[in-house]
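Customer escalation, tier 2.

The customer says the design service returned an amino acid string that "doesn't look like it belongs to this structure." They asked us to rerun it and document both sides in this ticket. The original structure tokens are below, unchanged.
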């Protein structure tokens, strides 16, 4: 394939199942990559049923694979196609291989799964190993309970895939909050490939926050605004239902208006039930919003599950928040909520305690709680550091192996050497 003298090419693999988290994070990283190199190209291979859900920067395009979902440890099924899973897997595997080798990337970012769903990436990784492409794995800090991750990664050969194919592993988190190498027992031979970037979040611009408040408080101008979110919404019904049942007790104590952003994956029958429960209450049900930051910023209190992207955006805005993580099957959200609460960044309610009475009390307590002036802020420069590393690799790291610290500006690449791109 003939290469024009253009900028660097980044290929992203993002297996997202029925969520939005991985796709949201990789979209932010692609945009930051292209902010630095507008002459570059980013191609994301993803299987989200919603396709290109988030707005893409100029130079970024998507290729959608047939969607699959994880139904249990090591077990997957097609989302839409009626073909046997092995046939769908073979189709995905061949498509990824063909696209990756034709695209000729300079750098490849594999999101979350070193060898892809059911090992579907291995043929592509082997093919790219003979090219100049630099291979980078990106993972969020908390994946699941340590014992679970250790067992699954050993069983599935994930550590061997890291050792064989990846130069570096970008950890979207902070080592002092969660030490991935220690908690997940990374082998000593590859532990030095871990690079802690900080939390990945969108630029903190919420221009419509005042408009959100005006729109939803128009009939109740003296009320406080509560905003509830649960990511894509596939498992948000229990939280939303409990919140609606708790709202009468809350409004008896203080005037409140509740906005529930249900998410695009909330089943229609559950959405209908929420409409029934909200009748006569100061509630606005919204399927999805284009500007989640403005909603989070507008809220007097955010009530949310503890997915990575929602919590990162809450932290980036300094929004007051009450987290109610999912019960399972993964321990990820409970681990994140409890660790963030320990640092004073959020309040949280364990899911085992969730009922209208406890939720009402927790919301009112959070609204009354004064701001913590002395809380050490989280490291929120993951987007910038990760994009910098994708562009420059180890050339801009400090002596300790950590990705070079940013200056605090969104423009972190001015004057930096241009190490990627082929002629």
């Amino acid at each position: 394939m003939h290469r024009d003298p253009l900028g660097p090419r980044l290929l992203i693999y993002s297996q997202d199942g029925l969520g939005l988290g991985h796709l949201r994070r990789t979209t932010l990283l692609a945009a930051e990559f292209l902010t630095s190199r507008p002459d570059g190209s980013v191609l994301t291979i993803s299987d989200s049923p919603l396709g290109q859900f988030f707005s893409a920067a100029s130079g970024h395009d998507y290729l959608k694979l047939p969607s699959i979902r994880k139904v249990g440890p090591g077990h997957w099924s097609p989302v839409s196609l009626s073909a046997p899973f092995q046939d769908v897997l073979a189709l995905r595997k061949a498509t990824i291989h063909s696209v990756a080798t034709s695209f000729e990337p300079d750098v490849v970012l594999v999101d979350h799964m070193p060898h892809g769903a059911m090992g579907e990436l291995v043929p592509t990784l082997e093919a790219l190993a003979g090219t100049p492409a630099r291979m980078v794995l990106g993972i969020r800090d908390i994946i699941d309970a340590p014992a679970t991750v250790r067992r699954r990664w050993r069983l599935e050969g994930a550590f061997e895939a890291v050792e064989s194919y990846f130069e570096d592993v970008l950890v979207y988190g902070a080592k002092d909050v969660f030490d991935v190498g220690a908690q997940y027992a990374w082998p000593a031979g590859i532990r030095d490939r871990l690079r802690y970037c900080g939390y990945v979040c969108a630029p903190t611009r919420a221009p419509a926050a005042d408009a959100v408040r005006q729109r939803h408080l128009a009939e109740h101008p003296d009320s406080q605004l509560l905003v509830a979110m649960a990511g894509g919404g596939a498992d948000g019904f229990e939280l939303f239902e409990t919140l609606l049942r708790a709202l009468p007790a809350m409004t008896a104590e203080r005037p409140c208006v509740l906005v529930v952003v249900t998410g695009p994956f909330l089943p229609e029958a559950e959405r209908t039930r929420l409409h029934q429960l909200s009748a006569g209450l100061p509630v606005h049900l919204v399927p999805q919003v284009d500007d989640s930051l403005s909603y989070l910023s507008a809220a007097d209190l955010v009530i949310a599950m503890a997915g990575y992207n929602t919590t990162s955006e809450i932290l980036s805005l300094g929004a007051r928040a009450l987290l109610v993580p999912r019960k399972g099957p993964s321990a990820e959200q409970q681990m994140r909520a409890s660790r963030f609460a320990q640092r004073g960044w959020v309040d949280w309610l364990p899911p085992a305690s969730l009922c209208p009475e406890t939720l009402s009390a927790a919301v009112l307590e959070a609204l009354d709680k004064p701001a913590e002036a002395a809380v050490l802020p989280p490291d929120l420069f993951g987007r910038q550091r990760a994009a910098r590393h994708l562009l420059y690799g180890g050339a801009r790291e400090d002596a300790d192996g950590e990705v070079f610290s940013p200056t605090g500006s969104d423009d972190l690449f001015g004057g930096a050497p241009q190490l990627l791109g082929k002629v």
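Tier 2 assessment: The sequence is consistent with the input. The longest strand covers residues 134-140. Confidence is low (pLDDT under 50) at residues 396-423. Sent an explanation to the customer and offered a walkthrough call.
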